[in-house]
TrEMBL record:
Belongs to the thiolase-like superfamily. HMG-CoA synthase family. It is an enzyme of class 2 (transferase). This is Hydroxymethylglutaryl-CoA synthase. The keyword Hydrolase does not apply. Pfam families: HMG_CoA_synt_C (PF08540), HMG_CoA_synt_N (PF01154).
Amino acid sequence: MKVGIDKIGFYSPKFYIDTSDLAIARNEDPNKYLIGIGQKKQAVIPNTQDVVTMAANASYKIISHDDIDKIDLIIFGTETGVDNSKSAAIYLQNLLSLKSSARAFEIKQACYGATAGLQMAKEYIINHPDKKALVIGADVARYGINTPGEVTQGGGAIAMIVSSNPSIASFDGDSTFHSDDIMDFWRPLYSTEALVDGHYSNNVYVDFFKKTWKEYNDKNQLSIDDYSALVFHLPYVKMGIKGLRAVLSEATEDKQISLKNEFNFSKTYNENIGNLYTGSLYLSLLSLINESSNLKYGDRIGLFSYGSGAQGEFFSMKLEKSFKNAKSINDLNNLIANREKLSVEEYENIFNQWLPIKNIDIDLNWQRDDSTFFLKSIKNSQRIYSSRLEEK
């Protein structure tokens, strides 16, 4: 029996900033951001969107009535949770009117949370092949105005339905993983902005990839020739390039060219959205599937997941017959193309309106947010969510 990803949905808000404009405002050469970091555009997240609403907007696009009947596991990977106790998955379950006879919980391990959820969902569906699981990777990446990490901000949500007999990709054997207690990236409880040792984090990322890559291939008697493409966790594009370069020497010249070409397809969405933390790897997978014209049924795709602090995992999936979805391609291309470009000043104003970590009552300007689901207000320390479906 095959188990894997049956559907993938994506959402990011309608605002973005051009990184060339950001570079000029920060007195930097635009190529430092465009080439040195590998980012063209960056999503800007208004305070009417958080991980719950973005996850709901991503999920709503792909969930059918049949899915609602069968989803009884909801796993929410995020490092931008809205409560230290109540999981984002419970809010999501209510917003999407999913059945209450379900397990719903949140996972946190930096950018690795969605992968942990995906692997848990895999095991669950193996034992319950008539059921489905909804796995979320949703985050808002914030480093602060005029900081070294500013160009690697962004945000959005990936929603994946895991099932037996999947349409997109099936798991291909057991994964390999490695963890260690290190301080390359963290976000203290008192802060909405992350702290990072960028150079150290880059080195650990590549080290974890090489370790899990070798162990996986040794374990499964595979080589680089057995992969049609490799996709990476992409907090920014250049990080994935460093990972790919670490193993290219194992391939022939023709294979190197092929893998580089497929990587270019896999980075298209990420370089226009920015950092999704838990969703970055799966946005890269979605970009590869939608953008590449070279892939075919049965191709093996290698995936490397990394979460600072740190956890790394490598696994592979094989593409199924219906992995190419014209509606998904059209919807996502429209989402990216029809966003509203902000000036640097407008971006800074929105960034500074992000809700602080303190007890406040506030009514938000939700009327400007045309998303299906949005955050309407905070009253008595409770988040009040709503939707266009209710407001009509």
